[in-house]
Amino acid sequence: MGKTMTNRFLALKRRNFLGLALGATTLLAPLPALPATEAMAKTQIWDPKARKWVNYDSKKARQYYMRNKMQAPEAFRKQVVTFRTAEKPGTIIIDGNQHYLYLVQPDRQAIRYGIGVGRDGFGWAGIVRVGRMSEQWPTWTPPAEMVARDEKARKWANGMPGGPDNPLGAFALYLYEGDRDTIYRIHGTPEPWTIGLDVSSGCIRMRNEDIIDLHSRVQVGAKVIVLMQGAALYKGV
Question: How far apart are CA 10 and CA 92, in angstroms?
Answer without folding.
Answer: 25
